Amino acid sequence: MKEVKLNALLSLEKLEVGLYRGQSWDLGFRALFGGQVLGQALAAAQQTVEPGQQAHSFHCYFLLPGDASKEVIYDVESIRDGRSFCTRRVKAIQNGRTIFYMTASFQFPEKGLEHQFADMPDVPPPQELQSEIDCYKKLFANMPESMQEKLSYHEPIDMRSVQSVNPKAPKTTKPVRYVWMRATEELGNDLAEHQRMLAYASDYYFLVTALQPHGLSIMDKDIRMATIDHAMWFHREFDFNQWILYCMDSPFGGNARGLVKGQFFDMQGNLIASAMQEGLMRKVTSEKST
After folding, report:
1. How sure is the predictor about 138, in pLDDT bands with cuts at 50, 70 and 90?
2. 285 burial level (CB within 10 Å; 0-12, 13-18, 19+)
3. pTM for the full predicted model
4. Of the listed 36, 53, 209, 227, which one is catalytic?
5. What is the pLDDT of residues 87-129, one digit of tens each?
6. CB half-sphere exposure, 31, CA atoms < 13 A
7. Range of lowest pLDDT (45-59, 135-149, 174-188)
8. Is 151 helix (H, G, I), strand (E, B) or coil?
9. Residue 167: its pLDDT value, please?
10. Which of 25, 159, 176, 194 is most solvent-facing, going by the fewest CB within 10 Å?
């Protein structure tokens, strides 16, 4: 499989002031991978803030399915520039239509009251677990060349699941999933680079966690899943060259929607980021629209 660089995907071409263009990867999903739009939209917003300002949160809505065969245009609007905080609104466009909106907030770092009321789960270390990409290579042995190319686009993030999940034969389990992850390419010292890559990775395995209590797989032809909204908060500086534990659980599913929440811990047990997502979760016998 060919070598791919996630940093290249998340490095946008500037077309005009506040206007950027990003390339697309086809990861083999039914639509453009949501993590790509998250990472690229954050990258676009990052280019419009003052040096030293760091993203501390973003909130997004996915409006239309993206086309993985086409580029994405990002239009950044400066909403507010304060002395400590600034706000940007990002619109992602394909075929002249808005497919996604993000509102991102940035802050100059400052000291303040600190606490953490979140414990990192006691799980096996990543060194004892197998890489997900290796599992999929074995699962889909003798795959055609086109599928091998799609699989190669998953390699920039080394992911290792604590729970063994077979997408071809899922079992009914609690809606909880723990995944170790880190970047496979060497990242520099720019925190913005690490943040947009973690934003990209935050969409992996997130919504599908809500399928686990139903014993269903994303590969089921009768399952329709799509992200509706996604929010993320960055709490501390972190290094995505090092292992990070992504802890996901789904507190609720119903009304054709699933809700999931996530926490990211570094190897020392520090909570570095949190995320929430709600998405369509529909079991159908014939195609329906959202």
Report:
1. low
2. exposed
3. 0.92
4. 227
5. 999 999 999 999 999 999 999 999 999 999 999 999 999 999 9
6. 14
7. 135-149
8. helix
9. 64
10. 176
Q: Are strands 157-161 and 176-183 parallel, antiparallel or unpaired?
A: antiparallel
Q: Return d(Cα 204, Cα 183) in angstroms, integer.
A: 13
Q: What pLDDT score was predicted for residue 1? A: 47
The domains located in the chain, with CATH, are 6-111+128-283 (2.40.160.210)
227 is catalytic: yes
From 40, 203, 209, 266, active-site residue: 203
Average pLDDT, the chain: 91
**Which two three-digit tokens encode residue 179?**
């995944």
Greatest CA separation found in the chain? 57
Q: Give the integer Cα–Cα distance in Å for 229 and 280.
A: 10
Q: pLDDT over 70 for what percent of the chain?
A: 89
To the query of whether residue 203 is one of the catalytic residues in this protein, the response is yes
What is the distance between the alpha carbons of residues 3 and 8, in angstroms, rounded to a whole number?
A: 12
Residues 6+ apart with CB under 8 A from 284: 222, 224
Q: What is the H or E stretch that residue 148 is in?
A: helix 145-152
**Residue 175 CA: distances (Å) to CA of 186, 199, 257:** 33, 22, 14
Q: What angle do CA 57, 59, 60 make, to 5 degrees?
A: 145
Q: How far apart are CA 260 and CA 211, in angstroms?
A: 11
Beta carbons of 225 and 274 less than 8 angstroms apart: no
